[in-house]
Amino acid sequence: MSSNQRPLEAGIVRDFKVNMSYGRYLRLDEVLSAQHPVSVPEHHDELLFILQHQTSELWLKLILHELRAVQRKLAADDLRPALKGLARVKHIQRCLTEQWSVLATLTPSEYAEFRSFLGTSSGFQSYQYRAVEFLLGNKDRRMLTIFDDDPAAQELLLGALEAPTVYDEFLRYLARHGHDVPVSLLERDVTEGYRYHEELVPVFTKIYENADANWEAYEACEEFVDLEENFQLWRFRHLKTVERTIGFKAGTGGSSGVNFLRKALDLTFFPELYAVRTEIGVVGA
């Protein structure tokens, strides 16, 4: 009868007194001991809640890492590697969106068992999420006041606030490659949140209607649209998970909850890339 086991090959490393182990490389002792439920008595489902948010923060850390690299690549006219970075961010976004389905298994009665122990802590206070928004264009200096007691968070956000956005770098790239991006956009105050500029739409119209001659710029535009669409899907999934779990209760951080989250769906990163869709193929446009 088969033992239903496979033999351990002779070459498999067993001695880690000197050799690097998997756990040591990943510092699993630190990672796996970073979950500290606060409910009394400890509620079974609080571990799910903690892990959901901790893993989200790890993914956000990687998104920030990738977006900064995209900015550098665009500034150096290395479009292909920049697009590779955006493609990786898109895959991370899908992971983040799918995670909501796990948290959605937490029923309202289960969450109510430990929600009061969270105090005023809230996902609204995720400084990495705010930094991602800043790098993509949704900048709001008022957000820095949320982190007055966290110098490291303030430093991260201030850096993202004062740097050109990924979209700014893309527009500068287009200008350097012969596209008529308005000078006012190239010289805009990058600490301000990005707003729609109608005069930019003809630039994208020309790219889209002459895709063969502008293929790299055309492809990049579609990557940016994918990025924004994925972000909006994440926002929507967040909204529906919160609605499913707490209904229309106020958020633990003081927001109105679902109604506040719903307003985020009106925020945009790359408005002209959506506006151009109305213009493509219009006679006389």
- Structural class assignment: mainly alpha
Outline the biggest β-sheet.
none
Radius of gyration: 23 Å
Taking the alpha carbons of the first and last residues, their distance comes to 77 Å
Residue windows where pLDDT falls under 50 for at least 5 positions: none
Query: How many helical elements?
Result: 13
From the spread of the alpha carbons, the general shape counts as globular
Q: Count of DSSP E strands?
A: 0
Question: Beta-strand level of the residues, as a percent range?
Answer: under 5%
Task: Explain briefly what this protein structure is.
Helix content is 57%, strand content 0%. The chain is built from 13 helices and no strands. The mean pLDDT is 95.
Essential attributes:
mainly alpha
Plain-language structure description:
This protein has 13 helices and no strands. The mean pLDDT is 95. The chain is mainly α. Helix 3 runs parallel beside helix 6. Helices cover 57% and strands 0% of the residues. The protein is globular and about 65 Å long.
